[in-house]
Design brief:
Elements lengths: L9 H19 L2 E2 H8 L3 H13 L3 E8 L5 E7 L4 E8 L3 E8 L4 E8 L6 H16 L4 E9 L3 E2 L4 E2 L13 H8 L5 E5 H13 L7 E7 L3 E7 L2 E2 L30 H5 L1 H12 L13 H9 L3 H25 L3 E5 L6 H15 L2 H4 L3 E4 L6 H16 L3 H4 L3
Parallel strand pairs: 4-7, 7-10, 11-14, 14-15
Antiparallel strand pairs: 1-3, 2-3, 4-5, 5-6, 8-9, 11-12, 12-13
Helix pairs in contact: 1-3, 6-13, 8-10, 9-10, 10-11
Length: 404
């Protein structure tokens, strides 16, 4: 016997309409009630009824008059530009960043702090909370805190199970510590590459007809994320996207994850600097010193320094191998390279593209576009904001939505 379908209460209908309207405003930006009605199929009376408490609560605000048909004037709506904020944290191996956004996604303030090698997680956590406290002190209302962390990150358990080169974070329950510290503010977590992929998809969706995006985050670590038809693919436990821990050399060195020859061992910024510094100590035909930093490597590469070019090209070859594996497995039609390695520019991308082309079937390569990210703000922080906004105002929290 077929089970009867369940109906929806008036409260459920109102909540659904609220989410539909907010999603329309998020997608369109500043718009009128009439435009919202046309986009959602809801009549204008329903739109007005739903919008009214959102204006009272400061989630939305009226932003100006526009001339409509027959000379009539209407007032546009947008997310609030002041009064309510989201704070986002990006944790990396050698630094962390904290930023505040208004509900429109405009950055209110952003700060970055270095993490000395070997510093205890508890000490870094104290600096993180000091930075968050400082931001909270300047805000009327904080709707949520978004935390983006490197992987492997089990989103299901909200636990970092490995942070290569930073073992001090293993066993430190960052998300729960933040929830204990800020009991009245919702704390949401996300893998950093998935956060950046969300931002990239939002940036590209209006100008690209791509259906599957592979985002490759290359910097202090190596991560990736797949976005399929606008949805980030997370896998069974939120672990999907660990490209940095796929093997490119079966008999290579043992990684902390237990695998051999992991991509991250050869291509991360930390690995690149280690090799360049070792070689610079004994080679004369280079402008780089044994203590060269990443900015100096960038300049040397742009100037055609032999050592910098050799090692950066080697990284490009290895990244191309990882990208080729992903293309053959997941079949994306758009691949975007983001994070710190975008600073190497088009020559670096061309090296990757040449290698990918040589290792793919021509018909496969012709169906995929490879490009550098063009986003100027930190896409990880912005993605953490989008994740909080989605869970706080646009729908059910991710964990509840999976059970609904």
């Amino acid at each position: 016997m077929r089970a009867s379908q369940k109906g929806m209460s008036l409260e459920g209908v109102q909540g659904y309409n609220r989410r539909v309207i907010l999603m329309a405003i998020r997608n369109m930006g500043e718009c009128s009630r009439k435009q919202i009605s046309d986009a959602t199929g809801l009549n204008q009376a329903t739109v007005t009824r739903v919008v009214s408490p959102l204006l009272d609560d400061g989630v939305l605000e009226e932003v100006g008059l526009v001339r409509g048909r027959r000379g009539r004037r209407s007032i546009n709506l947008d997310f609030s530009g002041s009064g309510r904020y989201v704070i986002c944290l990006r944790l990396q191996r050698r630094s962390f960043s904290v930023a505040a956004f208004n509900l429109r996604g405009d950055t209110f303030r952003s700060v970055e702090f270095a993490i000395p090698r070997g510093r205890a997680a508890g000490q870094t956590y104290a600096r993180i909370t000091d930075a968050i406290d400082s931001l909270c002190g300047d805000m009327d209302c904080v709707d949520g805190i978004g935390v983006a962390v490197p992987g492997p990150f089990l989103e299901r358990d909200e636990r970092v199970i490995l942070m290569t080169e930073s073992p001090e974070w293993q066993g430190f329950d960052l998300i729960q510590e933040l929830r204990t510290r800020y009991p009245t503010i919702p704390v949401h977590s996300i893998h950093d590459a998935k956060a950046a992929a969300l931002t990239e998809w939002r940036y590209k969706s209006k100008s690209s007809d791509a259906r599957v995006l592979l985002y490759l985050s290359a910097g202090q670590g190596i991560g990736s994320a797949l976005v399929v038809e606008g949805e980030v693919y997370r896998g069974a436990s939120g672990l999907a996207g660990e490209l940095g821990h796929t093997s490119i050399q079966a008999d290579g060195p043992v990684c902390k994850c237990g695998n051999h020859g992991c991509l991250e061992l050869y291509t991360s910024r930390i690995a690149l600097l280690r090799v360049i510094r070792d070689r610079a100590a004994s080679e004369k035909d280079t402008s780089l010193a044994p203590d060269a930093n990443f900015e100096e490597v960038l300049k040397a590469y742009a100037d055609g320094d032999r050592l910098a070019k050799q090692e950066v090209d080697r990284v490009a070859r290895f990244l191309a191998q990882g990208i080729t594996n992903c293309i053959n497995f997941a079949n994306p039609d758009l691949v975007v390279l983001g994070d710190e390695y975008t600073q190497f520019g088009q020559p670096f991308l061309n090296s990757i593209k040449d290698r990918v082309q040589s290792t793919l079937l021509p018909s496969v390569y012709s169906g995929v576009q490879l490009e550098l990210s063009r986003i100027t703000e930190d896409p990880v922080l912005k993605g953490a904001f989008l994740d909080v906004l989605s869970q706080t105002h646009l729908g059910l929290p991710r964990q509840q939505a999976a059970l609904a």
